[in-house]
Amino acid sequence: xxxxxxxxxxxxxxxxxxxxxxxxxxxxxxxxxxxxxxARRWAYAIVDAGHAPENAARMLEFVRGLVGRLxxxxxxxxxxxxxxxxxxxxxxxxxxxxxxxxxxxxEVLGAGLGRPGDDRQPxxxxxxxxxxxxxxxxxxxxxxxxxxxxxxxxxxxxSALRDTEARFRAVFAGSAxxxxxxxxxxRLVDVNATLAEMTGYTRDELCGRPVADVVHPTEAAAVAGLxxxxxxxxxxxxxxxxxxxxxxxxxxxxxxxxxxxxxxxGEPQLAVVMVEDVTDRHQLQLGLRHQALxxxxxxxxxxxxxxxxxxxxxxxAATDDRVAVCYIDLDGFKAVNDSFxxxxxxxxxxxxxxxxxxxxxxxxxxxxRMGGDEFVILVHDYKxxxxxxxxxxxxxxxxxxxxxxxxHRLSVSASIGIVDRTCGTTTPTELMRAxxxxxxxxxxxxxxxxxxxDSERTDREVARYELSASMPGALERGEFLLEYQPLVLCGGxxxxxxxxxxRWRHPRLGLLSPDRFVGLAEETGMIVPLGLWxxxxxxxxxxxxxxxxxxAAPLISVNLAVRQAQxxxxxxxxxxxxxxxxxxxxxxxxELTESAVIGPxxxxxxxxxxxxxxxxxxxxxxxxxGYSNLTYLxxxxxxxxxxxxxxxxxLRTEGRRPGHADLAGERMVATLVQLAHALDLTVTAExxxxxxxxxxxxxxxxxxxxxxxxxxxxxxxxxxxxISSG
Length: 726
Description:
Number of strands: 21
Strand order of the largest sheet: 13-14-16-17-18-19-20-21
Shape: elongated
Number of helices: 28
Structural class: alpha/beta
Strand content: 15-25%
Distance between the termini: 84 Å
Largest sheet: 8 strands, mixed, barrel
């Protein structure tokens, strides 16, 4: 069964058809009935064109196999167009000739071999036309050789042209090709009726004229040069595609093939010129090429033509020549399709394409549709980056006016990524990749804006990606480690807890702090396995301190990310880790931010309630940076809060008047501590760095502190020494 998609009579490309959907559709094999229907349409079209020696039944038998081969080629991976060329040549081999036949073939197959979303179909049909034309040219040359051989035989019998004319007439009088006999200077001495009809001149008007007189003025010199090569015996045969000018001024495309005729002594006498009118095929190939290089919905150039132009600009360019691209993506286009339907989405894309073309075409720039709702403007011949930025702003202004589509007035905005590079520092592929990255920045920074490529930002993004990609392997290889920072009782210098802080001992970048990789872990989901590893390692260390110090051992405080708090298996995971490590729940404290606990959704609260029922302490980390609503704390399973460092930082300096403390800041902290104590919550102050802060926090009743004043994060031995020293 052949892989074949039969398209509708007038297919319209869907505005959001992506490559994956197209591939899935093409991969489905249709029934034999579908393939048979296409074969029948093709066979009858060929017979109706009148250029086939067979009847419809025999023609159907012939084209069945061709349909299957074309359909298979359309979905083959990797795609190659060569099967199309072979099918075109086989049509000529079966005496199926004529430009009308080729046109009907392309029409039927173009409607029947549907593959929306890429350029495979026009490329395959273009190859078919090429194979057809090439085989027909070879057939022309064979006919020319037959005429040349006849002419040589006649010249051997009688060298005078008037004695051979009768013999020649029988050979070329009924030919479907235009045939002319020319002297070595390229002047016509005889022509057949077909050539006269083709050019619109009479035989008498053509005889005596140089062949170059009937070709297009811009190509006359080239034709004269070909005859010079023949007369100089540099070549025996020449051929070329040239434009001919008819007597009425119309221009037609023709394939010219000229061969020398030598006498019995081998001396050149005349030249046979065969002329084939290939105007229809030329126009057909132009149409197929246009179809292959332009978007069927908007009529704009497609990504293939865009890259062709890019390579054209880069090939002859000096290293300091500049090329820029503006990569455009419509904001919220999917919502248009979902709300109003694909037909309205298509109308919107056509209107946007028209505005983009009007905006840039006057400046000579190319705008192409890349697919979906993405467009690219190729900019060259400009003076400075500011010119490209001005163009991007003009595009945003042009799209600001609402667009009429499907009876609706739709507001449109777009994000644009701008890349301006010298040709010597990049390639077309790298240029487009940079533009794609910059477009992502524009969308991330806020829609309806443009962003300019920044190589340093790219390096940072690449570094982030490399870290993200290597994180799973790093966890398996044991590259992560824990450091601990003590929580100290205010006024007593007693270690009551230790916060576990993860580090990454990267083999190339050295020791990385959490701010370099925890955010990436949260984005990729690696925070879940990494968090479980941190929790187990910390609990194992906590068990060791319990064995060392007994009831005086510090509790272990572990940060819990939002993603971890939302995991359905959180309670079971914590319980299993506590069981494996032997640490009692009362010696484990889990720290969460306010947004993780008080934000939307009830899953974290339910899990934290179960953990609290098990005896695990729950603490709000960085309190004061989120909701800061103590009312919520009355209903939450929370035992402690950790004041954000911003509150504590205000206590390290004097107030507005020299020699006086910041009493307002101190009152604020005191109020928070009193309210927390009223809710039976303990309070830990983070970021404590000076003796002044420690004294003032102790004075307002803060329970414990954490910061550089007591100790920097360090190995577990640091906590062990502090415990042992009492």
